[in-house]
Specification:
The structure holds 2 protein chains of 2 kinds.
Chain A lengths: L2 E3 L1 H7 L4 H8 L3 H8 L8 H11 L3 H4 E3 L6
Antiparallel strand pairs in A: 1-2
Chain B lengths: L1 H18 L1 H12 L7 H33 L6 H27 L4 H34 L3
Helix pairs in contact in B: 1-3, 2-3, 3-4, 4-5
The chains are: A mainly alpha, B mainly alpha.
Chain lengths: ~70, ~150
């Protein structure tokens, strides 16, 4: 998957833990772990909105596109 | 719950029929044909077709019971159920082949009908298995949409 989730970087910057973030965002700890570990296949705009609000960041701060095509 | 009990009853009845098959076939041949014309060769041929059918039928019931158990545990859309539907489709295909051969050895009007029924069931279940597989894929995708 060429989309990398950099949520842990933003979480470290904001000094916020998974438990606290899951409470702020309103999703379960299990689902947040799936998202953080890059196991998720898709993310809803509503979830992205809530995460950006909780971490006070832009979607680009937590999602990154890395091409997997060999040059 | 009722369906599960019916499946268990069908498996028990199937096991009993398999155990009593030599006597049932003997009685049926004596009943439907004249006692004097009892054909021992035909009796053995019938058993050769009916025993594999019985065991394969038990396999279908076993897989159906396993699927139902998973459905009752609120886990209907899982890979295991897709595999079991495909097993049932394959068993039906084997039964179709068995009865295709049976057309030449068993003198019954129902043998070609069974051949058609099992053939159609195998085709239908193969399509259903593919459909079920897609449903499982969509469900997995949906489960990983956060």
């Amino acid at each position: 998957m060429p989309i990398i989730v950099n949520m842990d970087v933003m979480m470290a910057k904001r000094k916020i833990g998974l438990n606290e973030l899951s409470e702020l965002v309103g999703i379960t700890l299990a689902n947040l772990s799936i998202l953080k570990n890059g196991k998720a296949k898709a993310i809803r705009f509503s979830t992205l909105d809530a995460i950006c609000k909780a971490l006070d960041c832009q979607p680009g701060d937590i999602l990154e596109y890395v091409s997997d095509d060999p040059l | 719950m009722l369906l599960q009990r019916l499946l268990i009853a069908a498996m028990a009845a199937g096991a009993l029929i398999l155990l009593a098959l030599p006597w049932i076939v003997y009685w049926a041949l004596r009943y439907y044909e004249l006692p004097a014309s009892f054909d021992r060769q035909y009796y053995i041929t019938s058993l050769c077709f009916l025993y594999p059918s019985g065991f394969l039928g038990m396999g279908i019931l076993y897989n159906a019971a396993k699927i139902l158990a998973k459905v009752n545990c609120d886990e209907p859309f899982i890979e295991e159920n897709v595999r079991r539907v495909k097993y049932i489709a394959r068993i039906c295909a084997v039964l179709c082949c068995l009865y295709a051969a049976g057309i030449f050895f068993m003198r019954s009007f129902f043998v070609p009908i069974l051949f058609i029924v099992f053939g159609l069931t195998a085709l239908f279940l193969s399509v259903f298995g593919e459909l079920f597989k897609k449903a499982v894929e969509y469900k997995n995708d949906n489960d990983f949409t956060i």
